[in-house]
Amino acid sequence: MRRRLVSNRFPLAAALALFGALLVFGHVTVSLFGALSAAMFGVCLFAPVRTLSERRHGGPGSGRGPGRSTALFAAALDGIPDPILLIDRRGAVRHANLQYQRMLGAMRPGASVQIRFRSPEVLEMIQAALAGGAPAPVEFLERSPREHWFLVSISALAEGADGLGGFLLHFRDLSELRRAERMRTDFIANASHELRTPLASLAGFIETLAGPARDDEGARDRFLGIMHEQAERMSRLIDDLLSLSRFETALGRSDFARIDVVDILVHVVGAFQPVAARNDIAIALDRARLPDTQMFVHGSRDELIQLFENLVENAIKYGGDGGLVEIVAAPDELGGLPAVAIEVRDHGPGIEAEHIPRLTERFYRVDVETSRGKQGTGLGLAIVKHIVARHEGRLTIRSRPGDGTTAHVIFPSVAAENPSKITKKEAKTKH
After folding, report:
1. Tens digits of residue pLDDT in 83-104
2. Which residues lie below 8 Å from residue 61, measured CB to CB, with a gap of 6+?
3. How far apart are CA 244 and CA 223, in angstroms?
4. What is the pLDDT of residues 110-141, one digit of tens each?
5. Distance CA 391, CA 393 (A)
6. What is the pTM of this model?
7. Residue 307 above 90 pLDDT?
8. Domains of the chain, earliest start first
9. C-alpha pair distances (Å), 3 with each of 51, 60, 161
10. Separation CA 23–CA 170 (nearest Å)
11. Pairing of strands 296-299, 394-399
12. What average pLDDT is seen over the chain?
């Protein structure tokens, strides 16, 4: 009977499967599952792949051996989306995968890993592992080539045929999580501050009216007017916070339908005409360049109204001294497909270039006192950004000091059900 000789390809496949599962289900250093994965991975990595010829004759096969096995595992490590560093039992680098090199820089094979890192926590973890311990994962901040937070774990690999054994360092990128935590902390602090100011005013005026100004009718009327303004400010802030929260957590788009963008713009301009007139500002809507076949987008009517209300209100508040707010709608392209582009322009003082990238941040203001004096909440453009994203569009803000500000929004367009039969008037009446 012929004996069937099985090569060590099964341990190779098993090691890859177990190692992949370890990355997916967690980064536990001391566990039966982790130890088994690391052991099998090390055996396959450092033991030569014996061919059928080698098992029969005890010599090298047809060109296969330790070099090919190591190259295979190096390629496997390069395919892992997290940074991985392989070191030997002396702490010398054996391999840094491609993701490690992209995020943390190149590592020369043979270089000491303890020279690479300056974090005391990472160095202590590596030294503990080299001494035979099983240290817990640690976090560290890498500032070059860009700021990244990592959770680093180290696992011992079984000693292979070369007698070296080694360790596997896995780097889990926590940067987005840390940024989200920072944004949440800043958001809570800013929201608390914005609410505290009108609350303090209300409390102060109530105390004054209950005490020294109890019988002063003139003071009472003046204070009640201020208290009403502060209460309205709190109401606007709470409404914007609720809107922002709703857009950030919205998943579905069940209320989306075919919407006439020009109809939305006409509605918004009509709503703001009294405000513009009180501030001696003209609002001009140029709809002549938008043909019937390019006026529809797939979206939410209420959300689009809120978007353009925020843009027009900002143009009136902060660019109103230019005396004119222009709204232009025209056909365009987005990703090579038909689109509708809308611009809201003012002719006010403009904005310095360093402020523009941050305008859509929550509570960011170019001039805090001016914004509060004009009853701004600091959330308008943040809401606009989220609505544009939900409608798969793009938002661009252009401005130069002395040359006004332009908010440019572009959305993918959709054709009418039957453009030859649907007029602008009929489309308007559908909403």
Report:
1. 999 898 888 998 899 888 888 8
2. 50, 51, 52, 53, 54
3. 32
4. 888 888 888 888 999 999 999 888 899 998 88
5. 5
6. 0.55
7. yes
8. 9-173 (3.30.450.20), 175-249 (1.10.287.130), 253-429 (3.30.565.10)
9. 15, 20, 25
10. 9
11. unpaired
12. 76
